[in-house]
Amino acid sequence: MTRSRFHGEIYGVGTTSGVRIVVGHWTRSPLGEFTDVMIQFADGRRLLVAPNEDVREFVTATYTFDATELVPVTFAAEPDGLGRSAGSTPGGWRSVQAGDLSVRIRVAGPTVLGRALTLVPDAVSTAPWFCAISDPIARVVLRGVRTRGSAGGGRREYYGARGQHRVIDVQASWQGKDLGSLTPVTPPVTFGFGSTPAAPSVTTITTTIDS
Questions:
Q1: Cα(42)–Cα(153) distance, rounded to whole angstroms?
Q2: Is the pTM of this model over 0.85?
Q3: Are strands 182-183 and 3-15 parallel, antiparallel or unpaired?
Q4: Which is nearest to 35 in space by CA: 19, 56, 14?
């Protein structure tokens, strides 16, 4: 068995235009540090925006899209208003540029789930056996969310959440058109076996893929 682990954050937001956006910012992975963006439009179309061919090949082997774009994707943590780096504190803006998409996401304090996750050691919360146990609970508590499932090609995928913070604002545009204000991520996105939580949030996560 080959095991690959991706450590980073997943941002999920909805907009009043009906466009839902999921940003994955991965600080440690077999593909290095990278950011990718999954977009589902109001008509249901699913688009992957990837920074290079390796990322596109890996993600499309795991999730389902109607189209993909290969363009530079940049991620930046902006000052949080207190003179500190947003990258080292929970609060602040995160800015993503990905081809025709421009998005800024404002992160606030931890969710109730996020506080609970701090009580679980990372070695436990990210272990595939714990993800398997927590999957039935996640399905009930967070509608549409799964912590384990198929990654395609006979592979298994496990989502091990290590923390979660609220998202309280978004500024987003597609091809220069404003996408509107922040809304829940509804209807759920349909890229893979599980959706991002309906409540806009950022989850600190370790994704494990066994093949």
A1: 29
A2: no
A3: antiparallel
A4: 56
